[in-house]
């Protein structure tokens, strides 16, 4: 039975719990950082539908529900007062050391709080169903096998957020705060607390909270595990309503003490309705099995990886991050799970990355196929193929990005009521670049199709017909200006990167026709256009005085690290003097005309290049890994470049966070900037590691 609690007299303010924090309490990083945790102090959990960001102080500060691109329920990451959060931590007066890691070979996050009196462990995950337990297979190191019997209803994908706090040594007081802020902190909500009597055993009498807004109703269940304690010694968890600092509705708070072996679990889910709520008994045994099944899922998944090189740990983590960024129902892979994290603290370069870019397609498919993840590559190829068949304009143009469902309407909106991370405004959702003219996407798409045919499955005749149409379109428009890979919001130009990728588009179509013997009535026209583009780039995109390729035909004295792509897509040999002189120029520090500072690489000199946005930005993580791969390929012919590649790669790894996660950019101070974790950063990392292993024979030596 469930009954609402008449707790009006219990309603309180967050101020009631405000206590003088000690020097090393879990929140000291927030108080010293304008109320925000550093971007690199977050871990990611997810279920290939949505995800959440959990800070090292136990604060779950970001979650969109029920999908990646849904409105947020918690977004304290973007507004410390109004954003909403779900925090589990030791009492603020407790001085602790914090540690955060993933459980082995999984995306189950563990945050530990340690001091002389006790150790708390907080486990965070979204469930993934698996039929067999991991434990019987761990000793052999072999992937667990699926049972032949059909899965029970309880083994289906549960769209739950599970947070479990356990005392593993001594004792400790625990504070829990749940303050949702629905629809990007725009919608009001009501909060109801119910007493839920399910049995007579220890921990069976408990409360649940229900948060209700216009179009969403979430239920928070609590389960108590007494361990070896008697019923009288079992922890008591009592929810108390509280009005948040600026949230549009009440949250709940609870404080309780745990002793060694005791645990309390919280499950946040869509309100299942009365009948299911009465039927489905969430207890400790069920949650233990779900956690083991989830760990089995991840253990088996990463066991398929073919990467056995020197940097196996960081590559495996990058692969698991990419898996978390996959929207399983369609196969789409988002650029990043967050929105509007700034490229400069206090700046305006704040964008929504919760969408799938065509540009990422070739890099994603290449990495997935080479690492052994053929199912994911096939699903992503299916998503991209379906889009270019359905979403092309009458002229033959493609949108540059799609929603996870394949939509192209992604209106960019500014949320003026949110303060932004550390005051970085505006906070944007949607993306105004969706209909930008970015001609490079045809090269990435055609490269993806070519690679899929080479390493995955043969493309069909109907897909070939689409390839012919796209190639004909490229032959018609290759001279036009665009906004290119960096999605500039200023004037269009003849960007060298785009010209290179247009060359790639025609080149891959020609290669595919030759390898498969497909009919190609315009082959000679394609060849002529491809060669014309090549010579055009060499004439107008290379500055002989500077000795380097430049950003665009118009900005022919601006260096741009995007040209590092040239040998990676076989446009130019990595030992070509023109490219080597470009490498040498990029390796110079910015004050000497280069783009590299302390081993980090900038996209371009933002003081000289007008991209229509303004403001500062950090070094670009992806560009560092592109530099590493370019140096590696050049190093196959000259060892000095290979030594430089290894040094820069190892240096860059030191800028990851404690979980080997990379955001989009790195600040001059070494802090992470921009949306995190970014798929492109991790794709480029894997590719750089793979090629370093290839050139060094897998030893990392020269």
TrEMBL record:
GO BP field: carbohydrate metabolic process
Domain GH15-like: residue ranges: 312-689
Keyword annotations: Hydrolase
Trehalase-like N-terminal domain residues: 37-153
Annotated spans, Disordered: 1-31
Cited Gene3D superfamilies: 1.50.10.10
Top-level taxon: Eukaryota
GO molecular function: hydrolase activity, hydrolyzing O-glycosyl compounds
PANTHER family assigned to the protein according to its UniProt record, in alphabetical order: GLUCAN 1,4-ALPHA-GLUCOSIDASE, TREHALASE
Protein name: Glycoside hydrolase family 15 protein
Origin species: Saccharata proteae CBS 121410
């Amino acid at each position: 039975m469930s009954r609402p609690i008449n707790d009006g007299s219990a309603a309180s303010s967050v101020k009631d719990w405000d206590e003088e924090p000690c020097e090393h309490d879990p929140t000291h990083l927030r108080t010293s950082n304008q109320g925000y945790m550093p971007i690199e102090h977050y871990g990611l959990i997810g279920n290939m539908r949505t995800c959440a960001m959990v800070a090292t102080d136990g604060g779950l500060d970001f979650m969109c529900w029920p999908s990646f691109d849904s409105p947020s329920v918690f977004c304290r990451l973007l507004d410390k007062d109004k954003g909403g959060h779900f925090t589990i931590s030791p009492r603020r007066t407790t001085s602790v050391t914090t540690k955060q890691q993933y459980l082995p070979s999984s995306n189950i996050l563990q945050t530990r709080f340690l001091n002389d009196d006790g150790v708390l462990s907080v486990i965070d995950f979204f469930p993934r169903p698996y039929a067999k337990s991991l434990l019987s297979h761990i000793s052999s190191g072999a992937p667990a096998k699926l049972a032949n019997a059909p899965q029970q209803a309880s083994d289906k994908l549960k769209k739950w957020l599970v947070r479990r706090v356990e005392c593993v040594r001594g004792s400790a007081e625990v504070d829990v705060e749940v303050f949702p802020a629905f629809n990007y902190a725009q919608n009001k909500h009501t909060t109801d607390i119910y007493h839920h009597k399910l049995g007579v055993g220890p921990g069976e009498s408990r409360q649940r909270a229900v948060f209700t807004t216009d179009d969403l109703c979430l239920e928070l269940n609590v389960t108590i595990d007494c361990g070896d304690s008697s019923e009288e010694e079992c922890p008591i968890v009592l929810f108390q309503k509280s009005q948040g600092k600026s949230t549009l509705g009440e949250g709940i708070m609870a404080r309780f003490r745990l002793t060694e072996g005791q645990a309390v679990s919280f499950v946040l889910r869509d309100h299942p309705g009365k009948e299911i709520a009465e039927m489905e008994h969430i207890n400790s045994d069920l949650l233990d099995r779900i956690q083991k099944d989830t760990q089995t899922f991840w253990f088996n998944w990463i066991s398929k990886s073919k990467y056995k090189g020197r940097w196996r740990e960081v590559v495996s983590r990058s692969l698991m991050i990419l898996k978390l960024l996959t929207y399983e129902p369609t196969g789409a892979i988002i650029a990043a799970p967050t929105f509007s994290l700034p490229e400069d603290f206090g700046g305006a370069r704040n964008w929504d990355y919760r969408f799938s870019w065509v540009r990422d397609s070739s890099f994603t498919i290449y990495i997935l196929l080479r690492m052994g993840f053929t199912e994911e590559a096939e699903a992503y190829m299916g998503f991209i193929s379906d889009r270019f068949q359905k979403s092309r304009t009458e002229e033959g143009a493609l949108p540059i990005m799609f929603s996870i469902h394949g939509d192209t309407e992604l209106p960019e909106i500014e949320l003026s009521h949110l303060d932004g991370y550390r005051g970085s405004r505006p906070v944007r959702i949607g993306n105004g670049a969706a209909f930008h003219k970015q001609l490079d996407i045809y090269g990435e798409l055609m490269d993806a199709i070519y690679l899929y045919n080479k390493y995955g499955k043969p493309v069909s005749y109907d897909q070939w017909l689409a390839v012919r149409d796209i190639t004909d379109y490229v032959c018609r428009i290759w001279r036009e200006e665009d906004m290119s890979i960096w999605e500039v919001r200023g004037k269009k130009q003849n960007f060298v990167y785009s010209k290179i990728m247009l060359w790639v588009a025609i080149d891959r179509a020609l290669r595919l026709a030759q390898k498969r013997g497909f009919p190609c009535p315009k082959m000679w026209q394609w060849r002529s256009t491809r060669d014309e583009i090549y010579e055009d780039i060499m004439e107008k995109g290379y500055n002989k005085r500077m000795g380097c390729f430049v950003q665009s035909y118009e900005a022919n004295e601006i260096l741009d690290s995007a040209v590092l792509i040239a040998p990676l897509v076989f446009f130019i040999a990595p030992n070509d003097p023109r490219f080597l002189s470009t490498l040498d120029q990029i390796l110079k520090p910015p004050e000497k005309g280069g783009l590299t500072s302390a081993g980090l690489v900038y996209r371009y000199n933002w003081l000289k290049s007008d991209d229509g946005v303004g403001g500062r930005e950090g070094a670009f993580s992806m560009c560092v890994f592109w530099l590493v791969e370019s140096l590696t390929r050049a190093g196959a012919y000259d060892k000095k470049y290979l030594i430089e590649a290894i040094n820069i790669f190892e240096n860059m790894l030191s800028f990851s966070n404690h979980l080997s996660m990379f955001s989009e950019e790195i600040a001059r101070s070494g802090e992470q900037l921009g949306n995190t974790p970014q798929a492109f950063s991790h794709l480029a990392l894997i590719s750089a590691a793979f090629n370093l292993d290839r050139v060094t024979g897998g030893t990392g030596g020269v």
